[in-house]
From TrEMBL:
This is Bifunctional coenzyme A synthase. Residues 1-18 form the signal peptide. GO terms for molecular function: ATP binding; dephospho-CoA kinase activity; pantetheine-phosphate adenylyltransferase activity. GO terms for biological process: coenzyme A biosynthetic process. InterPro entries: Cyt_trans-like, Depp_CoAkinase, P-loop_NTPase, Rossmann-like_a/b/a_fold. Keywords: ATP-binding, Coenzyme A biosynthesis, Cytoplasm, Kinase, Mitochondrion, Multifunctional enzyme, Nucleotide-binding, Nucleotidyltransferase, Phosphoprotein, Signal, Transferase.
Length: 564
């Protein structure tokens, strides 16, 4: 059966009966669609009548909100799918209810196939029903001209559908912060304007629950605060966060897709309160279990400034059923960033000038990052490791190629009595003096690069197919031009300072000064192909390195030069 890039899933079963069938329905849909899956809720609709079915409003109740949360949670099992529940026909009970748009809604990715859970009487792919489904889909949304249709029943299984006790209420995932007891059938109130905030890095299904609830509550405008700058500093692996503009782009496409009738004001969030603390026109704020206290604090801040409190809607965290031991139990961007460790982030460099059959990795990282321990782990897996520090010692030795030019440039008072260069005195001359540092690096870096090329030839002679250049100054020296991939080891600066103090006996100030003289972790990552981190226990680091190594072996097998 064909697989489609984008699809539209029309769900017609009443929600209480649909919830237990959702997992097999999503699994069936995931076999047919491999990228974007739009979901349209029209419970109770029949596709077997003579008249063409019309889209009708679905009353927004807490049952509907819970179902949306349930569907997004179930979609986590299909990570390749970008699921988007369309909200145009889901309406709150409010006096200022806009009429349902009669025009066809444009979607960012027009569906190539329309799917449904609707059951024909005999369980067949009954053509008139499929035609009705296609007509219904194209009357609601912009679809591809050659639209296909599939009735998922009975593919999503019949065994569990015979059980009569399916009408079990969904677990409550959305809680309004008020003394009013909520019930599944209770209508949800609509508001003119509200707000929601977050980092929205690598937009995931827990974000989508938060945003969907906010979109249903808001009737006119939704203010969306996107964390930036200082609010990102405490994040895990901040170097792997998508840039602000990229996060906003993905977020905006999702929001306009699910509810185009709303006006969205997407703004950078630079302090914990954002507009929620100061905008008098806001009426509600959607928060997660984790940010609920922040919502309460924003309300206290509003009261202190004579503003009305916001109605708070708290969303339960979505559990990540497939999280690893060192990952968070909830669906989170932190887990997504951790899963990027060891993976290729951008295409490798073509380096035809390097020795044939040798794949060269440049390994770098800030001081204290654990780069050398990673180099040793790679050596244990079979890599030939070139230590640029050792090459530096060879270059500075009295018989080394950098010795004479350095002495001529800096004078004989940098020498020990035995004629060896005193690297401490030399270091004190160049540290903090850009001009002197450039004189030194212009001499030494090309020499070390030449020695590294000689070591590569040695690696080939030893029959190695992977060579790792361990170099803290890899990018500063321009040595990325002689590697296929740059691998960077990252850790938080606070952890790097702690390690440098412990390892080298420096003061915290001296450790920070050392780090400030180097490229930052972010600058390194921006030019890297693979990122690793030694932040966790050694066995986690080992698993990361093995993952990176195994993926590298697959890449090498596909590289033509590997077979020269």
């Amino acid at each position: 059966m064909a697989v489609f890039q984008s699809g539209l899933l029309v769900l017609t079963t009443p929600l209480a009966s649909l919830a237990p069938r959702l997992a097999p329905i999503l699994t069936s849909a995931a076999r047919l669609v491999n990228h974007i899956l739009y979901v349209h809720l029209q419970p109770g609709m029949s596709l077997e009548g003579p008249a063409q079915p019309q889209s009708s409003p679905v009353q927004a109740t807490f049952e509907v909100l819970d179902f949306i949360a349930h569907l997004y949670a179930g979609a986590n099992l299909h990570r390749h799918l970008d699921v988007r529940i369309l909200l145009t026909n889901i309406q709150t009970k409010s006096a200022f209810l806009p009429p349902l748009p009669s025009s066809v809604q444009n979607l960012a990715h027009p569906p190539e196939v329309v799917l449904t859970d609707f059951q024909t009487l005999d369980g067949s792919q009954y053509n008139p029903v499929k035609q009705q489904l296609e007509r219904y889909a194209t009357s609601c949304y912009s679809c591809c001209p050659q639209l296909s249709s599939v009735l998922l029943y009975p593919d999503y299984g019949t065994g569990m559908l015979l059980v009569e006790s399916l009408d079990v209420p969904l677990s409550s995932t959305i809680r309004p912060a008020s003394p009013v007891a909520r019930s599944p059938k209770q209508p949800v109130r609509g508001y003119h304007r509200g707000a929601v905030g977050g980092t929205f890095d690598r937009l995931h299904n827990a974000h989508k629950v938060l945003l969907s609830v906010a979109c249903i509550l808001a009737q006119e405008q939704l203010v969306v605060g996107v964390a930036d700058k200082d609010l990102l500093k405490s994040k895990l692996l901040p170097e792997l966060l998508q840039p602000y503009a990229e996060r906003v782009e993905h977020l905006s496409e999702f929001l306009v897709d699910i509810k185009p009738s709303l006006t969205f004001d997407v703004i950078p969030l630079l302090d914990p309160y954002g507009p929620a603390g100061s905008d008098p026109s806001l009426e509600f704020l959607v928060v997660s279990e984790e940010t609920y206290r922040g919502g309460m604090a924003a309300n206290r801040f509003r009261l202190e400034n004579d503003l009305e409190e916001l109605a708070l809607y708290q969303i339960q965290l979505v559990k990540d059923e497939s999280h690893e031991q060192h990952e968070e139990e909830k669906v989170s961007s932190s887990n997504s960033r951790q899963r990027l460790l060891g993976k290729l982030l951008r295409p490798p460099n073509k380096r035809p000038e390097l020795p044939s059959g040798l794949y060269v990795i440049g390994l770098t990282g800030i001081s204290g990052s654990g780069k050398s321990s990673i180099a040793q782990r790679l050596k244990g897996l079979g890599a030939f490791v070139i230590d640029s520090d050792h090459l530096g010692h060879r270059a500075y030795a009295p018989s080394g190629p950098a010795y004479q030019p350095v002495v001529e440039a800096f004078g004989t008072d940098i020498l020990h009595k035995d004629g060896i260069i005193n690297r401490k005195i030399l270091g004190s001359r160049v540290f903090g003096n850009k001009k002197q540092m450039k004189i030194l690096t212009d001499i030494v870096w090309p020499v070390i690069a030449k020695l590294a090329r000689e070591e590569m030839d040695l690696a080939v002679a030893e029959g190695k197919d992977v060579c790792v250049i361990d170099a803290a100054m890899l990018l500063e020296a321009g040595w990325q031009n002689m590697v296929h991939e740059v691998w960077t080891v990252v850790i938080p600066e606070t952890e790097a300072v702690r390690r440098i103090v412990e390892r080298d006996g420096l003061s915290e100030a001296a450790a920070q000064s050392r780090l400030q003289s180097q490229m930052s972790g972010q600058q390194l990552v921006d030019q890297s192909h693979v990122v690793l981190s030694t932040l966790w226990e050694p066995h986690i680091t080992q698993l990361q390195v093995e993952k990176a190594w195994n993926l590298l072996q697959k890449r090498i097998a596909k590289t033509p030069q590997a077979h020269d």
